[in-house]
Design a protein that fits this description.
The structure holds 2 protein chains of 2 kinds.
Chain A: H1 3-11, H2 15-37, H3 40-56, H4 67-86, H5 92-99, H6 110-129, H7 132-143, H8 148-155, H9 159-188
Helix pairs in contact in A: 1-2, 2-3, 2-4, 2-7, 3-4, 5-6, 6-9, 7-9, 8-9
Chain B: H1 6-20, H2 25-37, H3 39-56, H4 68-80, H5 92-112, H6 116-120, E1 133-137, H7 144-154, H8 170-173, E2 192-196, H9 200-206, E3 210-217, H10 224-233, E4 238-239, H11 241-244, E5 257-263, H12 265-275, E6 282-289, H13 299-304, H14 310-322, E7 332-335, H15 346-355, E8 362-368
Parallel strand pairs in B: 3-8, 4-7
Antiparallel strand pairs in B: 1-2, 3-6, 5-7, 5-8
Helix pairs in contact in B: 1-3, 2-3, 5-7, 5-9, 12-14
The chains are: A mainly alpha, B alpha/beta.
Chain lengths: 189, 372
């Protein structure tokens, strides 16, 4: 069943149909929120809360957007709201530890795996230093693989704004990553 | 980057979109030409591409748990805090009724303050659907205030929406429901209604983010001006008061004031937070959604909060409700107090018609009560 059918089935009283949607999207949403928040714990809570709110408010879901788009917006609003309440947020150093990076390709030897983990931590740390607005659009583009049109729909922004904001976000992150990017060729050699 | 002029900055945006393959053919050709001649541009493209690749190469993490059971169980608990049933029947009739009241406040009420000749001459160019038929019966509601405020003014105002400020969504306008006209059966009482109209479905679908927020001040010295100052502090100027009626008297604190605010969620949240902040001039704050659900009834949320003052708790509960809403553009507000007529404020009309309404924009009617 596709998402729309599952939504209709849920609204028709088949609650287990919503379970299929949870199963379908929980990991994807978790990974995205993990990169946005920098905390496994927060991301996990947000994923659960987002699904709960989505289910409670499912009858307000308009079929003109994809279910995941709608879910993502709920999750992001929850996340932003949570961050506002908590300010100042946990330090980057703490958040860095919270993600729990693991090597992408195991079996490369301990040293290489350690390098991969350290590199991922540095990137995550840099990402957390970028403002919410810019980090959000980076996550949508690079983690979610959204097109500019899709980002425009999710954030309710004109495509031109998406383009300029994404550029600024990348420039911000570039500055944060500059040292690491400059070091990379030497590491590869 | 700061030493770049705006044109260079704009051009560099194209380089970012170039990396993403999100340019038109003409733009891509332009960037290709620039890259041939400009080593700095080539360097920029390489760096932006590296940034993109770096993020994409981050490992993918999995949640490591199955949330299905927890979500379904918790949703039932959450739903018990709200009258709305999960997946249950939509209470569209009430939602549409609430919206109708809001629309009438915005559109009809001001017009009703004008002479009938003007109303009769209102253009009917957008009248494209059957009028909404509402037959009113007496029943209490959170919209009672709206009904009372507008009851006498609404009689005989059928079909005057056209030519006024169009506060509706772009989606609504393009859905063949351009005109939301009140049928003559409506007597202005607006308590409960039988609704027979194509108005119901599209409105219900697009208007889910409207709320009423009731503010009660701590004493009589706090009037609408204080609220307007608060809005101004958040970058929203209230329109409609002075231009509407030059001899309109400044409302006293004995009157309930209505201020319709359309703004991004974050802005609304900031306003609510300010209302519940330190030294708040308001002693209570409650939100009523289109289902008639009153935030003051959210005992569960209230029990969880450990805030100092009642109004601070109120604000926290309202923020909790609002967090489901979506985000959007710039804010503006219209004062709908007695004697203020926004409908013929030409600049307001231009503003409203030029920007329509973002589907994601939150629209809240603030109801400023008089001090007790």
């Amino acid at each position: 069943m596709d998402d729309a059918q599952l939504v209709q089935a849920t609204l028709g009283g088949e609650k287990q149909a919503f379970g299929v949607l949870v199963q379908r999207y929980q990991d994807r949403l978790f990974n995205t929120l993990l990169r946005f928040t920098g905390s496994r714990h927060d991301a996990s809570d947000l994923v659960q809360d987002a699904f709960i709110q989505a289910l409670v408010k499912l009858d307000t879901f308009r079929g003109d957007a994809r279910f995941y788009t709608w879910l993502y917006r709920i999750a992001m609003n929850l996340s932003l709201s949570q961050r506002r309440k908590r300010r100042p947020v946990a330090s980057v150093d703490v958040a860095k530890e919270r993600v729990g990076e693991e090597p992408m390709d195991e079996g490369q030897g301990p040293q290489q795996e350690l390098l991969q983990v350290e590199r991922a931590q540095m990137v995550q740390e840099s990402l957390l230093r970028v403002g919410d607005e810019h980090r959000q659009i980076l996550v949508l583009r690079e983690m979610e693989g959204c097109s500019y049109d899709q980002i425009s729909e999710i954030l309710s922004l004109p495509v031109g704004t998406v383009r300029s904001r994404l550029f600024r976000a990348r420039v911000q992150l570039k500055e944060q990553l500059r040292a690491m990017l400059q070091d990379e060729p030497e590491e590869d050699q | 980057m700061s030493d770049k002029n705006p044109q260079e900055y704009c051009d560099d945006e194209l380089l970012s979109a170039y990396v993403d393959g999100e340019l038109t053919d003409a733009e891509r050709a332009s960037v290709d030409r620039r890259l041939r001649d400009d080593p700095q541009a080539r360097e920029m493209v390489a760096e932006l591409g590296a940034v993109s690749q770096t993020l994409r190469s981050l490992p993918k993490h999995e949640l490591g748990a199955d949330l299905r059971e927890a979500v379904l169980q918790q949703a039932v608990v959450r739903a018990e805090q709200s009258p709305a049933e999960i997946g249950g029947p939509r209470r569209w009739a009430w939602a549409a009724l609430a919206l109708a009241a809001t629309l009438m406040l915005v559109v009809y009420l001001p017009e009703a303050n004008r002479d009938d000749q003007h109303l009769a001459k209102a253009p009917l160019k957008e009248r494209a659907v059957e009028p909404l038929q509402v037959s009113a019966k007496q029943e209490t509601s959170d919209l009672g205030l709206l009904a009372e405020s507008s009851a006498s003014s609404l009689s005989g105002s059928a079909g005057v929406l056209e030519g006024n400020v169009d506060f509706r969504d772009e989606a609504e306008r393009t859905a063949g429901t351009d005109t939301v006209a009140m049928g003559t059966a409506f007597d202005g009482t607006l308590r409960s209604a039988t609704i027979e109209s194509p108005f119901l479905q599209p409105i219900s679908e697009v208007q889910i983010e409207d709320y009423h927020i009731h503010l009660t001040p701590v004493d009589r010295s706090v009037g609408a001006a204080r609220f307007e100052q608060l809005l101004a502090n958040h970058g929203i100027s209230v329109r409609g008061r002075s231009s509407a009626s030059s001899d309109a008297e400044e409302p006293t604190t004995d009157e309930t004031e209505l201020v319709l605010v359309e703004a991004p969620l974050e802005q609304i949240q900031q306003i609510v937070a300010s209302c519940g902040g330190d030294d708040s001039p308001w002693k209570s704050l409650r939100l009523v959604d289109q289902d008639g659900v009153d935030s003051s009834q959210q005992h569960f949320a209230r029990q969880k909060s450990k805030l100092d003052t009642p109004v601070e708790e109120d604000a926290a509960v309202v923020l909790n409700v609002l967090q489901l809403s979506d985000a959007p553009a710039r804010g503006w507000a219209v004062h709908l107090g007695r004697g203020q007529v926004p409908s013929r404020d030409s600049s307001l009309e231009e503003t409203a018609s030029s920007r329509g309404r973002s589907v994601a924009t939150l629209r809240v009617l603030f109801i400023l009560h008089s001090a007790e």
